[in-house]
Amino acid sequence: RGGAVLMSALSAVEMALWDILGKHLNVPVYQLLGGKVRDKIQVYPTGFEVDEYIKLGYKGIKIPMPYSFMHGEYGMKKNEELVAHAREVLGKEGFIALECYMGWNEEYTINMARRLKQYDIRWIEEPVMPDSYDTYRRLRERLHDYNIMISGGEHEFTRYGAKALIDGGCVDILQMDIGRAGGVTEMRKIIAHASAHDVMVIPHDHGAYRTANYHVTLNSIISPMAENLVVRGLDSARMFTNEPMVDDGYVTVSDAPGFGYDLNPDYQP
Which of 57, 84, 187, 243 could join 248 via S-S bond, C-beta 3.0 to 4.6 A? Predict the structure, then answer.
């Protein structure tokens, strides 16, 4: 992972070039990629404020899991309480995913999957360290017994890491980060390889690169939805202007040139 900083920098430059090209040709980036396969994208937030998300129209949620195997039965109970509340608020139709951020291990993941089966979990994301390919493979096989998918890829920085996850049968959902994996061009290659193996791609939301994710997702038949980390400040008075806003759990990308947004000169972090 020594190339992580380099790949992140290259990704930023690469995406800037796509934006420049789109603005020069006066077409949106998704059109440069071949057009869109859907008119709008379902998005989901990641966080704890389930009641707030429902009011904003989201149809599902990814919940960070604050407790790991180090916290024993107490932690498992607390994790379950978060999931139980989300299911109560979302009802039967809304989906629930779990963000573990490499904080679990194989045994704990299986125990949590067994414990949470009643809540109809759609996927468990990155339960173990990103290089633990054999563990991912075993977990994927075991989690299918509980009708739960496994996802990963956020901390892979090249298409070769994505290939290892796909070819190794490690994940059901690949969640590469466009701001780390090489930008739009590399994501297209990753999506093509995933498509050949019937693996879904739901890009990780890196905040600043969210709209780039939207353009790639619009062009991808195997990308059914996108992550949206920011659910507050929906007036777009943020780092960029004219960002696509969430409306009833969906985002519609404009046909403005490039990625369709510009730097906000009044932004103050």
Answer: 57
DSSP single-letter state for residue 247: E
CB 252 within 8 A of CB 44: no
CA quadruple 64, 162, 16, 245: dihedral sign: negative
Catalytic residue among 24, 85, 193, 204: 204
Q: What is the Cα–Cα distance from 43 to 62, expressed in whole angstroms?
A: 11
What's the pLDDT band for 233 if we cut at 50, 70, 90? very low
Q: Report the SS3 class of residue 170.
A: coil
Report the b/e string of 92-128 with b at 16+ CB within 10 A: eebbbbbbbebbbbbebbbebbeebeeebbbbbbbbb
Q: Which pLDDT value is given to residue 171?
A: 98
Tokens 């490690």, located at residue? 170
Query: pLDDT by residue (tens digit) across 142-179?
Result: 999 999 999 999 999 999 999 999 999 999 999 999 99
CA–CA distance, 261 with 58 (Å, rounded to integer): 23
Identify which of 219, 146, 140, 137 has the alpha carbon closest to the alpha carbon of residue 178: 219
* pLDDT at residue 126 tops 80: yes
Q: Return d(Cα 194, Cα 106) in angstroms, integer.
A: 24
Element (H, E) at 43: strand 41-44
At residue 237, the pLDDT reads 54
Q: Is 204 a catalytic residue?
A: yes
Scanning the structure block, which residue is given the tokens 């992140």? Answer: 8
